[in-house]
Design a protein that fits this description.
Largest sheet: 5 strands, mixed
Radius of gyration: 19 Å
Mean pLDDT: 85
Structural class: alpha/beta
Low-confidence stretches: none
Number of strands: 5
Shape: globular
Strand content: 5-15%
Number of helices: 10
Helix content: 40-55%
Order of helices and strands: HHHHEEHEHEHEHHH
Length: 250
């Protein structure tokens, strides 16, 4: 019988053979993101703060701090993450820079379509009431292209999302891209790097296991597909976007 070390080596060897294009790998999401036990409490505080109709300056500041704390706890639940940094560099403020150097992080990178040489993830937390503008996207694009070249994924955590992105309330499929959505697509075409956006409704769902990985993969995949509709809610096991005569066969 193989000893524990041989068993671990066998697992690592098989992980190296992981094919991200095989749908079966989606089952790994539940193993790669286990929500931090402290997260539900902070999400509840965040939701309560958002319900304040006329927040004071101190309440708005608390809202921003809560969002940054939530983002940090989210990454604490991501397997393989070993480096967490938030600092003022020579040119920019980095809200949170996360990476890892082990096999677990390599598996996470494969699930997120990231090259391991660009395995860093940079986040920006924006707790303001309006949508992100193109200048916000342009700034992060510049950082990832010129400063943090080892970052393959940028994530905005926001309240209202970003301009140009399709929303659930739209009656028809979005066929044209503009504003932040256009910047996102051009940046990916130029660098093969990704920038995605979370809104407050999506953030409040991150207290469940697997949700973060599942949301990220769907958002990243949509940059490649340009479906023109928002990614399916994480509660939906499958993403179904078919004409009626095919959907009825599902």
């Amino acid at each position: 019988m193989a000893n524990q070390e041989e068993f671990v080596n066998a697992i690592l060897s098989n992980l190296e053979k992981l094919d991200r294009n095989d749908p079966a790998t989606d089952k790994l999401a539940s193993y790669c993101y286990t929500a931090d036990k402290r997260l539900p409490n902070y999400l509840e505080k965040f939701a309560n703060n958002l319900n304040i109709k006329n927040p004071s300056q101190s309440q708005l500041k608390k809202r921003g701090n809560l969002l940054e704390q939530i983002v940090y706890l989210v990454f604490q639940g991501l397997k393989g993450a070993t480096s967490f940094k938030s600092f003022q560099s020579a040119g920019s403020q980095y809200d949170l820079l996360v990476t890892g150097d082990n096999q677990q992080w390599m598996t996470v990178c494969k699930l997120l379509y990231l090259d391991f040489t660009q395995r860093g993830i940079i986040t920006e937390s924006k707790a303001r009431k309006d949508k992100l503008q193109d200048k916000d996207f342009a700034r992060l694009c510049s950082i990832m292209e010129s400063n943090l070249t080892g970052c393959g994924l940028g994530i905005f955590f926001t309240l209202e999302g970003a301009t140009g992105f399709p929303i659930k309330e739209q009656e028809s499929r979005q066929r044209k891209i503009s504003d932040c959505k256009l910047r996102q697509v051009i940046f990916h075409a130029k660098t093969q790097k990704y920038i995605v956006v979370f809104n407050k409704e999506e953030i409040l769902k991150l207290g469940k296991n697997a949700t973060f990985i599942t949301m990220l993969t769907r958002k990243i995949r949509d940059i490649q597909e340009l479906s023109g509709i928002p990614p399916e809610p994480v509660e939906n096991f499958q993403e179904i976007d078919l004409p009626t005569h095919l959907k009825e066969l599902n």
